[in-house]
Amino acid sequence: MKQEEVLLVLLNEYADWESAFLAAGLRTGGRYVPRVVGATREPVCSLGGFRTLPDYDFQTLPDEYAALVLIGGTGWQSAAAAGVVGPVQHARDNGRIVGGICNGASFLAAHGFLNDVRHTGNTLEQLKLWGGDRYTNEAGYVERQAVADGGIVTANGTGYLEFSRELLLLLEADAPERIEADYAFQKNGLYSA
Amino acid sequence: MKQEEVLLVLLNEYADWESAFLAAGLRTGGRYVPRVVGATREPVCSLGGFRTLPDYDFQTLPDEYAALVLIGGTGWQSAAAAGVVGPVQHARDNGRIVGGICNGASFLAAHGFLNDVRHTGNTLEQLKLWGGDRYTNEAGYVERQAVADGGIVTANGTGYLEFSRELLLLLEADAPERIEADYAFQKNGLYSA
Asked: Which member of B43, B49, B120 has the closest CB to residue A34?
């Protein structure tokens, strides 16, 4: 079976932990290959100072992929972030799954992508602040760590495990019981203290 | 104040989540700079398929640094890992803090570095299996997510938050109440479900 690609968009000062479990979980299942997308092909620098090499840039995105995921961080109000609107619209127009965690979710709100789905994010206040008139779905905000609805998965920045679980389940990246077991193991820990 | 370096050792197939919170936490405090150490200067590939550029390789490690941290993954029984024994010995001989999470802790056990400190890891059974005759401190094994003792911090692979907290506290990387608050926020989440 040909592996499908899942595109993870990283901007400078991305949050290391928000992609970590998702990318590893995708590779565990074996059905998908995670690919890093940067604004350019230059290394992207994380909040932890890691320099990550992109596999694609905004100009070289493939047409075929299973999901487009916006990883949070402090770059989602920068000029570079504007280049992600087109790719998100492409994903929605073509029925691909879209993910946004932390400020990635705020960015989705700011560009009107959360107006027809239940969703969550870094508090309702932040989505309203970023979205302004473009965000019209206050009623769709759910106070949960992660929410999947209508092909869009959102989470707040501490919802990295739940975000990963929802995306892996939606993508059928592995057996559901294995996805749930991995989630529980990381959430609860090997030891109780 | 001159920033001190904290060296994070990554081997191929390192676990993305085991360095994520620590590296970001170090940069938040501002007193330290995390630096990535690879076997060579070629990109290191994570379990999630991320390609990370090292700042140093095993031949170019600086003499001055505050801590040396072995990030887990599936590479710690590879030939490349043997090159980390010397750097760990250097750190111990010079009173630097040493960290090992997941198979990084197993590696420390396998090379006799846990025999005079209380510690934890990916189960006692794994440390005995990896350590054989070189691991003589079964009595020092503690069933906790992370343990700091005698300048060595160890954790199992699900103890990524506790590992980060213990190292940040030991390094005095930030105000203790801020380290504890960040830990609790990530551990408990913004929402309860």
From this structure: B49
Whole-model pTM: value is 0.97
Instruction: Please answer yes or no on whether B27 and A47 come within 8 Å at the CB atom.
Output: yes
One pLDDT digit (tens) per residue for chain A, 193 residues: 689 999 999 999 999 999 999 999 999 999 999 999 999 999 999 999 999 999 999 999 999 999 999 999 999 999 999 999 999 999 999 999 999 999 999 999 999 999 999 999 999 999 999 999 999 999 999 999 999 999 999 999 999 999 999 999 999 999 999 999 999 999 999 999 9
CA distance A106 to A63: 25
Neighbours of A181 (CB within 10 A): 12
- CATH number given to A4-185: 3.40.50.880
- CB neighbours of residue B188 within 10 Å: 10
Q: Where do the structural domains in chain A lie, given as residue ranges?
A: 4-185
Superfamily of domain B4-180: Class I glutamine amidotransferase (GATase) domain (3.40.50.880)
Q: Predicted ipTM?
A: 0.96
Residue of A24, A48, A193 lying closest to B47 (CB–CB): A24
Specify the 3-state DSSP secondary structure of A12. coil
- How far is the alpha carbon of B20 from chain A, nearest alpha carbon, in Å? 5
Residue B141: its chain A contacts at CB < 8 A?
none
